[in-house]
Amino acid sequence: MRDYRCAPRTLLVTFFTLLAPLGWAQPPSTVLTLQEAMGSNTERDHDVVVAAVELESAERDAARVAADPFALRLPRLQAEGALATARDALVAAKRRAQAQTQNAFYEALEADDALRLAVRALALAQTTLEATEIRFEAGAVMALDIERARNGLRAAERSLAAAQTRRTLAYSDLAGRLGVDPQTLSLREPTDDAPIPTLDAALARLRDNTEVRRAEQAVLEARVSLEGVDNAFSARVEVESAEAAYSSAQDRLEELRRSLALSVSAEHMAVLALHDALRAAEQSYATEKEALEVQRARFEAGSVSRLELAQTALDTATSATEVRAARYALGRAVLALEGALQGEGVAVPSSSNPPRSALLGSVLSQQAPVHRAPLGKLIEPHAEREVDRRAPGERRPLEHPKPS
């Protein structure tokens, strides 16, 4: 007969030994929040450094053109447009760097959660095997049940090894971006939800979108070019070519406004769906916590076994992990929406290990109630466009666009 009196002590030793890779064995020297991590990586990113150098070059070119007293209006506009483009490129590079850091931060936190669950699952598998062996010696179960319990233990050990590897890789990736030692890095979990703008507020911000401003600059340059050839000394073919370029630039601007409005509406719907998923996950977690309290009371009364209590505790921990995963998914989606609003949208990768809840897996297919404005009113343009319909050879003065 095996002596199982030392089993709880063995489980405790194993439990705290496995928790050492999580950094719980000694206090870490570097504790970072999400905002601190995103801020510290912005200036280190290679794309940000390159964009800053290109901005300096564009500033020198614009200053040289502005200092030339003989520079024409069109070259001045082109230099100003190149400078604005370089500034937007720097902002976009910083935003991409922040998105990558945010995703690496969330990946590290999710790896921590996966390792905690793997430790709990391993302890539960060990307890299950020991209980099965005791019941087998008492003649209550068959040898096949012992083999199944052993298989469960081996599977839990493999899951723990995979979780440890995932955590090591995630922390190494994040530490490499931040320039710190991964062994001393510890993360503070965000507890606040990312702010979500209303659909009307989001659509209103498209007036300052980088791509919209660039298209408006192209319309202005095309109008200036048309003004330069629309005179008695210009050939008819040259005038018609400039008119076609101006009309095409206007059409591209209108189409861009429509497509961006549709894209932002879809991004906003996804954010609302993920917000609803987070609320649902929080409700499920509250239910699991109540079930755990009930199970503890039943265990103290002798109605359930220690194994059943451990299983309920594991279910509650899994539910808490799904709440955090839903919060991280919402943060990713809000940042993606911010990128779509500012222009040159940020491609934010999703979690490589989504929660087991089917709710989060199908969240994008949910139809969240979103107020939709008529498509023609999604973005109020800076000025009403008037398409030139003159017959060949007909002349009329050109009106300058209204200022933004």
Report on this structure.
By secondary structure, the protein is mostly helical. The protein has ten helices and two strands, in the order αβααααβααααα. It has helices spanning 7-18, 34-42, 46-67, 73-137, 143-178, 199-204, 210-229, 236-300, 306-342, 358-361, and strands at 30-32, 185-187. The protein has a two-stranded parallel ribbon. The N and C termini lie far apart (87 Å). Mean pLDDT is 79; it is low at 1-28 and 345-404.
Topology:
Blueprint: H1 7-18, E1 30-32, H2 34-42, H3 46-67, H4 73-137, H5 143-178, E2 185-187, H6 199-204, H7 210-229, H8 236-300, H9 306-342, H10 358-361
Parallel strand pairs: 1-2
CATH topology of the largest domain, by name, is: Outer membrane efflux proteins (OEP)
Any idea of the CATH class of the largest domain? Answer: Mainly Alpha
How many domains, in number, for the residues?
Answer: 2
User: Given the structure, what is the number of helices?
Assistant: 10
User: How much helical structure, as a percent, in the residues?
Assistant: 55-70%
Described by strand count, sense and barrel closure, the largest sheet is:
2 strands, parallel
Radius of gyration: 31 Å
Total beta-strand segments: 2
Attribute tags:
404 residues, mainly alpha, Outer membrane efflux proteins (OEP), 2 domains, 1% strand, disordered N terminus
